[in-house]
Each structure stands twice: as structure tokens, then as C-alpha cells.
Design goal:
The structure holds two protein chains of two kinds.
Chain A (H helix, E strand, L loop, with lengths): L1 E5 L10 H12 L2 E8 L3 H8 L6 E6 L8 H12 L4 E5 L2 H13 L4 E5 L1 E4 L2 E6 L4 E7 L4 E5 L15 E4 L9 E8 L12 E5 L6 H14 L2 E4 L1 H5 L20 E5 L5 H7 L4 E6 L12 E4 L2 H13 L1
Parallel strand pairs in A: 1-2, 1-4, 2-3, 3-10, 4-9, 5-9, 12-13, 12-14, 14-15, 15-16
Antiparallel strand pairs in A: 6-7, 7-8
Helix pairs in contact in A: 3-4, 5-8
Chain B lengths: L1 E5 L2 E3 L21 E3 L1 H15 L5 E8 L3 H11 L3 E6 L6 H15 L3 E5 L10 H9 L3 E11 L2 E8 L2 E8 L2 E5 L11 H7 L4 E4 L12 E7 L8 E2 L3 H11 L4
Parallel strand pairs in B: 1-4, 1-6, 4-5, 5-11, 6-10, 7-10
Antiparallel strand pairs in B: 2-3, 7-8, 8-9
Helix pairs in contact in B: 2-5, 3-4
Classes of the chains: A alpha/beta, B alpha/beta.
The structure holds flavin-adenine dinucleotide (FAD) and adenosine monophosphate (AMP).
GO molecular function (chain A): electron transfer activity; flavin adenine dinucleotide binding
Function (chain A): The electron transfer flavoprotein serves as a specific electron acceptor for other dehydrogenases. It transfers the electrons to the main respiratory chain via ETF-ubiquinone oxidoreductase (ETF dehydrogenase).
Protein name (chain A): Electron transfer flavoprotein subunit alpha
């Protein structure tokens, strides 16, 4: 058995979701190889080679992989991945974009967003916004899988001594081209890797009010998250959305402020270790999953919280 | 330009689903079904393209039980021109749906296919990408903005770090996020008109596609519930609990 893990990165830094995916790969057993496809991405390949448990890094460095364009990337992964028993990618926006394409080219099913591995062909995955867990068995010889990062421990980033083998770039059909991007810049920890998240809902009321959450997040060294409703209202950018159709997080501490607790939101955060809810409506469903609930108006509670934490 | 839209009939997002006691699946008896919310967005976008004079015809396809016809009718009432129902009582997994859509594309020759980014029942997020791969077409997934300009589609995509814009040479597949638009409600006259719009009925064997599931569901269970917590009286108590009891700050 040998497993190919697709590295998630931005050409400079290896994203931690890759480490969680390597852990999942280890549970499958066998040699683990990591594919790094990027442009001027040597630091990523070197970082991948140091991951504990990785036997080999395959490195395709070419301008066609500078952006995560699914067309050239899926052709490369398909060509390289053919010889493996399983191909794993984190269930990030990048993984979700490219892996189904790989699966279709290989004529196999994809197993999306697995949260546990029962055996090398049997996996657990959430369905219906995490309100049910399905145990599924794959009948395909080659498994194409995306991995829910929060469900697997991160492999150690140091300690491995894998070789880095340069591989040739594949074809680029060239029918999709990169035009531009708007990447949110933040000094705060990355949402999916943060230990503490302060998250706001529609009840925050405005972009300005979200600053109250940012202040709190900075005091705690945490990240800021949001509901779909808060993003839709234009309070914060889309990359902060947590939930069934946003990001999945599981920090040590999740503070939900002015969030009602719709199932679609809970789907993205209910595996957090400690959940705090601050809401002025004592009937809000969020209180049913909160370890500590505070019925209060946020405009009173948040400044108080900032003061209390400074003591 | 002909536009093809795929719409799935799913359990309404407001329904709190229940897992069957025997662990074979989710109880779907007596629950409300609606069009997958992402697919409403897909239909709306197609209708807007038609209103803008960019699309000439909108064909909607749904696959599954006969009741999926209602889902097609909803799309027709929103402004789609005609429907195709691929009836099947076996579970249709994304790879099978993508293959069926590919067979329909061969007949219909659309220049643009719009699907939802994710079906809210299976949460797979696969079908559009698989279809694009099978057709050898470019894809623009998780779209929150779409502009068609001649032979080109410009798609703004929601990605983990923010937004990305890519240009696709048509024909192409676009999968949509809810933020792309606000779907309209069908008016009563349009609901009446939709009853007269044609729906073709096909089967997987008509299309020559083997839809045998590749993933076998061994069991479905409820996730473990969080135990109920406590209410704190004030901020001071909250901070004290977080420091001394939970030890997370
Ligand atoms: C297909 C689909 C997918 C979806 N995916 C997601 C997803 O991924 N993530 C997600 O989050 N949602 C998702 N949703 C939306 C979800 O159903 C809810 O609509 C959304 O989560 C509600 O967001 P909210 O809690 O911010 O807003 P609301 O439900 O409007 O709640 C606002 C809360 O703020 C409280 N409040 C107001 N003012 C104050 C104040 N001054 N002080 C204290 N409390 C106050 C209110 O009591 C209320 O409980 C999805 C919906 C659909 C249909
Ligand atoms: N049975 C189906 N009938 C029609 N469209 C479907 C079906 N299954 C999936 N789709 C389309 O594919 C999208 C993504 O579904 P999925 O890959 O299952 O998450 C949906 O939003 C629909 O547009």
C-alpha cells in the first residue's frame, strides 16, 4: 500500500491541513509520498520533506501550477496518482476544487470530507450538515479522498528526512486562466488552525461593530470567524465563513457572539472543545451546544469582557 | 447560447433530519423536499443571463425519483424553458450524475453548464467538477460572480484565503455559491405557465450509463451530542470559568 498526499500551499508556505492529511494517510498504512505542485515552491517541497512519516516528496515546479487551476493540476495528479492505492487531499477549497476532477478522470468515486478511517476501504463522513455520520465502503481499487483536517491530529512538521524528487510538469489544456485575486491579509492566526476563535453573527449589526470582536480576538491571540448571514450582510469577507458550506473549525475555545445557532453553522464548529455563546435571546439554539452561555447584549458584554481580560 | 442547469431534489434545509433506528439511512418519510438551495441560485443565474440577452435557452435537468419532476417545475416557473427528468430509484452518486449529465450534454450541446457547489443532503461537492473532467471542459467552482463575454466566462471564486477570478473559454462548467445572487420567487402566472412547459423523461439506460453505486453505505448514525452546559450570570463569572474550570485562556 502506498498513499499519495497532495500538499496544500501558497508556493511559499506549506499549509497545516497537509499535516493532518498525512496523519490520515498514516492510518491507511504503507509508504506516504507527498506531491508538491507549484511555482518557485522549493520551500514548500523542503517543508514537506521534513514532515514526520513522509517517505518521498514529488516536486513539480512550473508556472502552470502557480495558481490552483484545476485543469493542469488534475492531469498531473491523475498521472502521478495512478500508481498508488489512495490519493488524499485536505478538504480545503483547493482540494474540493481539484479532487473530484481527479476521481472522474480515474473513473472512481470520491469520498468527500472523511472524519474517520475504519479500514483502508471504509470511511466515516458527515452528511446532512453533520446531523448524520455515514460509514461508507469504497468498491474502487484506487481511493480518492478529501480529509476533514480537524478530525485528524497534525503530523509532526519536523523529524522526517524524505528525499525530494523533481518530476516533469504535465500538460496544461489552457482553457482556464488566472485573472486576479483578493487575498485577505491578517496578522491573526489562520481560522482553521487557530486555538481560539471569536465568531460573530448577523446580530453584530455592522462592519464597525465587528471591530469589537477583533479587539477581543487580539486580546486572546485568536482568529475571527463569522456566520454566512454576517458574510452575506457584508460585515466581513467570505473567507471567515464557518459552517456546512464554509470552513470547518475545531479550536480549544469558540466564542459565538450574536449567533443564533442554525444547524448549518453548528456543522462547522460543534467539534470545538469549549463553546461560549453570548446572545441576548435566551432561547437561541446556540445555547444548546454551549458549555458556557451568557444571556446578554453584546454591546454591554464585549466591552466588559475586554476589561475583565485585561485585569 | 444554450445553458444547462442541474437541480437536485433534497430534504428542505429547515428540516431537522432523523437517523433511522436501524442505522440504514436518514428518515425521509413525511418530510418536506425542496430544490437544493445552491441549485436555486444556479437557475436564477441562468434566468438572468437569458434576461440579459446572453442565454437563448435554459434546459433544467434533475435525476432521481419521479417527484423530482416538482423540482423541475419549480425551475420552469422561475424562468427555465424546458426540463429533462432522468428517473431512477437507485441512489445516484455524483460520478453517476456526472456521467448522465455528460450524456445529456452530448445531445443538447450547451455552451454553459451551471450547477450548485454542493448538495445539502450528501454534502459531496463533486458533481460539477466531475462533469467538467469527463467533458474535458474548464471549470469555475464556488462562484460568487459570473460575467459572460462572448466566448469567455469570467468567474469570481470563493477560496479559503478570499476571492480569486479566473477566465474560462466556453464551453465551461460553473458551480455556484449562494452569494452569487438572490433567487426570485416564482409568480402565480409563471407557475401556471410552467405547467405547460415540456419535460422529457429518460432513464439511465436510455443514456447508456451504468449508475451502480461505487460507495456502499454500511451504516448511518447520529453524531455524539454535546452535553448541555451552564448559563453564567455575568462576564466576570464567564472569565473565571474559562480560566479556572475549562483552562482555555
Ligand atoms: C444551503 C445553506 C447553507 C448554509 N450554510 C451556512 C454556513 O456554512 N454557515 C452559516 O453560518 N450559515 C449557513 N447558512 C445559513 C444558516 O441557515 C443561518 O441563516 C445563519 O447561520 C444565521 O446566521 P446568524 O446566526 O448570524 O443570524 P441570525 O439567525 O439572524 O441570528 C442572529 C442572532 O443574534 C442575536 N442578537 C442580535 N442582536 C444582539 C445583541 N445586540 N446582542 C446579543 N445578541 C444579539 C439574536 O438574538 C440572534 O440569535 C446556510 C443556509 C443555507 C440555506
Ligand atoms: N440527482 C441530481 N440531479 C440533478 N442535479 C444533481 C443531482 N445530484 C447533484 N446534482 C448537481 O450537482 C450539484 C452538486 O452536488 P454534489 O456533488 O452531490 O454535492 C448539485 O447542486 C446539483 O446542481
Amino acid at each position: 500500500m502506498s498513499v499519495l498526499v497532495i500538499a496544500e500551499h501558497d508556493n511559499a508556505v506549506l499549509k497545516t491541513a497537509t499535516l493532518n492529511t498525512v496523519s490520515a494517510a498514516r492510518q491507511l498504512g504503507g509508504d506516504i509520498h507527498v506531491l508538491v505542485a507549484g511555482h518557485n515552491a522549493r520551500p514548500v517541497a523542503d517543508a514537506a520533506a521534513k514532515i514526520d512519516g513522509v517517505a518521498k516528496v514529488l516536486f513539480a515546479d512550473d508556472a502552470i501550477y502557480e495558481h490552483d487551476l484545476a485543469e493542469p493540476l488534475s492531469l498531473l495528479i491523475t498521472a502521478v496518482g495512478k500508481g498508488y492505492q489512495a490519493i488524499l487531499s485536505p478538504a480545503t477549497a483547493g482540494g474540493k476544487n481539484v479532487m473530484p476532477r481527479v476521481a472522474a478522470l480515474l473513473d472512481v468515486a470520491q469520498v468527500s470530507d472523511i472524519c474517520a478511517i475504519v479500514s483502508p476501504d471504509t470511511f466515516v463522513r458527515p452528511i446532512y450538515a453533520g446531523n448524520a455520520l455515514a460509514t461508507v465502503q469504497s468498491k474502487d481499487a484506487l481511493k480518492v479522498i478529501t480529509v476533514r483536517a480537524t478530525s485528524f491530529e497534525a503530523a509532526k512538521a519536523e523529524g522526517g528526512q524524505a528525499s525530494v524528487e523533481a518530476i516533469a510538469a504535465g500538460e496544461n489544456p489552457g482553457r482556464a486562466t488566472f485573472v486576479g485575486q483578493q487575498i485577505s491579509k491578517s496578522e491573526r492566526p489562520e481560522l482553521t488552525a487557530a486555538q481560539i476563535i471569536v465568531s460573530g453573527g448577523r446580530g453584530m449589526g455592522s462592519l464597525e461593530n465587528f471591530k469589537l470582536l477583533e479587539t477581543l480576538a487580539d486580546k486572546l491571540g485568536g482568529a475571527v470567524g463569522a456566520t454566512r448571514a454576517a458574510v452575506d450582510a457584508g460585515f466581513v469577507p467570505n473567507d471567515l465563513q464557518i459552517g456546512q458550506t464554509g470552513k470547518i473549525v475545531a479550536p480549544e475555545l469558540y466564542i459565538a457572539v450574536a449567533i443564533s445557532g442554525a444547524i448549518q453553522h453548528l456543522a462547522g464548529m460543534k467539534d470545538s472543545k469549549i463553546i461560549v455563546a453570548i446572545n441576548k435571546d435566551e432561547e437561541a439554539p446556540i445555547f444548546q451546544v454551549a458549555d458556557y452561555g451568557l444571556v446578554a447584549d453584546l454591546f454591554q458584554a464585549l466591552p466588559e469582557l475586554a476589561t475583565e481580560l485585561s485585569k | 447560447m444554450k445553458v444547462l442547469v442541474a437541480v437536485k431534489r433534497v430534504v428542505d434545509y429547515n428540516v431537522k433530519i432523523r437517523v433511522k433506528a436501524d442505522g440504514t439511512g436518514v428518515d425521509t418519510g413525511n418530510v418536506k423536499f425542496t430544490m437544493n438551495p445552491f441549485d436555486e441560485t444556479a437557475v436564477e443565474e441562468a434566468v438572468r443571463l437569458k434576461e440579459a440577452g446572453k442565454a437563448t435557452e435554459i434546459v433544467v435537468v434533475s435525476m432521481g425519483p419521479q417527484q423530482a419532476q416538482d423540482t423541475i417545475r419549480t425551475a420552469l416557473a422561475m424562468g427555465a424553458d424546458r426540463g429533462i427528468l432522468v428517473g431512477s430509484d437507485t441512489e445516484l452518486q455524483p460520478l453517476a450524475v456526472a456521467k448522465l449529465l455528460k450524456a445529456i450534454v452530448a445531445k443538447e450541446q450547451p455552451a454553459l453548464i451551471i450547477v450548485g457547489k454542493q448538495a445539502i443532503d450528501d454534502d459531496s461537492n463533486q458533481t460539477g467538477q466531475m462533469l467538467a473532467a469527463l467533458l474535458g471542459w474548464p471549470q469555475g467552482t464556488f462562484a460568487s460572480k459570473l460575467a459572460i463575454d462572448g466566448e469567455r466566462a469570467e468567474v469570481t471564486r470563493e477560496i479559503d484565503g478570499g476571492l480569486e477570478t479566473i477566465a474560462l473559454a466556453l464551453p465551461a462548467v460553473v458551480t455556484v455559491d449562494l452569494r452569487l445572487n438572490e433567487p426570485r420567487y416564482a409568480s402565480l402566472p409563471n407557475i401556471m405557465k410552467a405547467k405547460k412547459k415540456p419535460i422529457d423523461a429518460l432513464t439511465p439506460s436510455d443514456l447508456g450509463v451504468d449508475v451502480t453505486p461505487r460507495l456502499i453505505t454500511l451504516k448511518v448514525e447520529e453524531p455524539s451530542r454535546r452535553k448541555a452546559g451552564v448559563k453564567v450570570a455575568n462576564v466576570a463569572e464567564l472569565v473565571s470559568k474559562l480560566k479556572n474550570e475549562a483552562k482555555v485562556i
